[in-house]
Amino acid sequence: MKTVNIYLNFEGTTEAAFNFYKSVFGGEFMGGIMRYKDFPPSEDMPPLSEAEKNLVGHVSLPLGKQILMGTDIVESLCNGHKTVMGNNVLLTLETDSIEETETLFGKLSEGGQPLMPPAETFWAEKFGSCTDKFGVHWQLNYTGSKAPEQM
């Protein structure tokens, strides 16, 4: 496996969430924000309301070598699938420094809920976890000198 990419489902808040993540991590959306109205016509696609057509069908934001992707779930397109926000997604970021861990934790937890403020653990020089203001759970980990020795 070369990379692990993360896909997040929202109920109408994808654009706000991804603009927030862009402000935290920087970068640009790959190909912009694609809305359902931008999808090519398909006989398999049920008719959508005007509101559903303006929802985010797909967005991608590079995070280093990985890509954070997301969509607004439309039940009629997903066989009645309903999004359950919160503990269904847990994202772990291995940071480059203690300072980066603390900075990202501060930005991600703003308006959300700090679960474990950044602190030293037995596995990391600095580890913290929080839930952001969109209900997504994040773990920030700087292993540093506590990285297991390579065999």
TrEMBL record:
UniProt xrefs under Gene3D superfamilies: 2,3-Dihydroxybiphenyl 1,2-Dioxygenase, domain 1 (3.10.180.10)
Segments forming domain PhnB-like: 5-140
SUPFAM superfamilies reported for this sequence: Glyoxalase/Bleomycin resistance protein/Dihydroxybiphenyl dioxygenase
Pfam families (UniProt xref): 3-dmu-9_3-mt (PF06983)
Domain of life where this protein originates: Bacteria
Name of protein: VOC family protein
Record organism: Sinomicrobium weinanense
